[in-house]
Structure formats: C-alpha cells, structure tokens
Design brief:
The protein is α+β, with helices and mostly antiparallel strands. It has a single domain, classed as Alpha-Beta Plaits (2-Layer Sandwich), CATH 3.30.70. The chain is 26% helix and 51% strand. The protein has 2 helices and 4 strands, in the order βαββαβ. The chain has a 4-stranded antiparallel sheet with strand order 2-3-1-4, with helices on one face.
Amino acid sequence: METRVAVISVIVENNETVEALNQLLHDYGQIIIGRMGIPYRQRGINIISLAVDGPQDSIAALSGKIGALKGVSAKTAYSNVVSNV
C-alpha cells in the first residue's frame, strides 16, 4: 500500500464543531503524526496544523470530512514522499 506525507491546515471559526472535529481526529489517529493548535483569541478562531502519513485516500477523506463541518475549512498540501508499506 502506498502512503504519503501531507499537512492538513484547519481553521475553526465555529467552536460548536470542536467535539465533532476531535472525534474525526480520534477516528483517523492511526495516520496522524502530530498536531499543533493555536487559539487566535483576538479573531475568535483556532488554527490547527496536522502532519499525517497514510494512504492518499485516507488523507483526502479526513480533510474532506473536516472541511464539511460547519464553520471549519481545511486544505491539504502533499509532499512528494511516497512509501510502500
């Protein structure tokens, strides 16, 4: 199976979605290398960066599900690092 390394950038504008977002991150925990969250209190948003390593389909599914949450946006940047696991 081919896996890729990527970064998913997430901006949370609606704090009511945090529980659903955390559940998604738990569900996809096997591909998450690490995450960094920054609360930007002056703007009332949260900025999250997720480092992931997994099948491209799984990364795309996670990013899509995150972006489908109300008041949340997500963008993914893929590296050219591909491994066969």
